[in-house]
Amino acid sequence: xxxxxxxxxAFGKIISSLVDDIVMPLISIVTGGVxxxxxxxxxxxxxxxxxxxxxxxxxxxxxxxxIQISVDxxxxxxxxxxxIKAINKFRRKKEEETPPPxxxxxEILLLRExxxxxxx
Length: 120
Fold this sequence. Notes:
It is a single chain. The chain has 120 residues and is mainly α. 64% of the residues lie in helices and 10% in strands. It has helices at residues 2-10, 12-30, 63-97, 106-119; strands at residues 41-44, 47-48, 54-56, 59-61. The strands form two sheets. Strands 1-4 form a two-stranded antiparallel ribbon. The protein has a two-stranded antiparallel sheet with strand order 2-3. The model has no long low-confidence stretch (mean pLDDT 82).
């Protein structure tokens, strides 16, 4: 979980740009040019005066922004999954390449015999 938080913070802008500039336009093509960030449910319209100036902003539920942030999260989670999978594969490969310790050389065996005989 901590790794996800760190990676998400470090790559937040990159992932947001990836989603905003690449993924969402592709989804927009499939869905007929829909921009998800603009989706909202207006609960109360904005109050304006006679000249058109907004006195009170509209009250709305911006579920399109929620969709956008959810896609951001899914992309971050997928990238994190791929990174951890690659790291684990590299670690396993490195462990397989490490040869088991070989038998000590004749010199080492002779030195051990000398050491043991000196202890007596």
